[in-house]
Amino acid sequence: MDDGIFSATVLSKLPLADSAWRILHFTLADSWLEDLWDRERGRCYVKILQFSTLARLVAEALTQHGGSGRQAFERGQESDTLPVAISSTFEKLGNLPLPLSQKLLEEGTQRLVEILPAKPAVDAFPVPACWDGYELFGCDGKAIKHVKRLLKPLRGLQAGILGARSSVALNLRTGMAVAMVGDLDGEAGEAALTARLLSNMARAAGGKPWVVVLDRLYCNLSFPRLVLAAGGHFLARYCSNTHLVADPNRPAQESRDARGQRIVQEWGRLGKSAESRALYVRRISLYLADGKVIGVITDLLDEAAFPAEDLLATYKKRWGIEKVFHQITDVFSLKNLIGSSPQAVLFQLSFCLLIYNTLQVLRTHLASHQKCEAERISNEKLFYDLKRDLVSVDRLVEKQSLLRLLGAAPTSDELRDHLQTTLGGVWSNRWWKAPSSRGGGHKKVKTRVLGNHTSTYRVLQEART
Predict the structure, then answer these.
(1) Does residue 165 carry a pLDDT above 60?
(2) Residue 235 pairs with which residues in a beta bridge?
(3) pLDDT of 4
(4) In terms of DSSP bridges, do strands 279-287 and 262-270 run parallel, antiparallel, or are they unpaired?
């Protein structure tokens, strides 16, 4: 059989891999990667190894080799894709400028957004109706751990080591990480990084009004003002360390949610009443059955335009950024760091987020065919099958033959149409997310054991008696 016909047949039998390769071929186009390098390279230079080649090898390490850079680089040398020594490749990776990593995620995600389904039957990541016309972002900090102690100064240290720290913004409408701001110092403050992230969110909003959903760390007098100065609105978890002075001219309102839980809305000034920096906000408190209270504050004061229940439901979606961090660590191999320097660590974080966004494109197209929310499809299960397909293509199809089949990078409209057609008949019931327990899973009860160790057999015997 002709090699081209065989390669085309392999891709047609593995539509997940075909779609992923075409998305990466579009997103990581040589012209864009080289332009990005020219703009953000700083004092770095190119002698033999092109940045586009390095980016593709890192993508292969994350999608096919469980985060092993050496496996990807050795195979790159074997196929004549990598023209330099492996040690030189690691050295180049360890010196990539931080602005390059940040722009890789921001601009790469903009390219991915262009190929999302135009008019899905069901919103992939639904948000309350009060946010029509708004962009919603959740953000949080991420300290990168699991650093290999390969660098000489790190060897023998009796301490936990943080590779770097970053703050990441997640678009709650698309489920994609849209921006990242990093710091080479893993002990850097999270709030300062998130403050630098506000301008990125304003750009990602594309001129629309936008809201950022924040944790209690940002419930103070300074950070909400930074959000307002950047042109956004805030919805943050209330922290009792910051006092709220109720407005005597606007009485509190009480109501019940759909589950019968009590909701109290208050208006007042955040901070001491005599303080000129005090900020006028609205606080919404949800009283749970176990006596706990969940409170949020916002500068959106109109309770009719922004109902209390909708704002509480929106705050719960902030947990999505925590899920992203968990998945890029365990599923997309961030725990297996390719390099040890802070620059290499942050580049890998940016690339893991970009790969995660690529999977969201696939998940959204599949959800549009299933007429369901994308959140019902498991990232882990889908990526497991995608990884198997990518490895199969890599084993059966030579790189040059694959590149000839992919051809020139398509336009966003052409690729969107191709994905809609290719993924239309692709589905497995294995990809449904397992139902979650409403009770919150098993209760964690810690019991001390004499001697601080025991065996499974003895614990089971005691449980039987």
Answers:
(1) yes
(2) 213, 298
(3) 78
(4) antiparallel
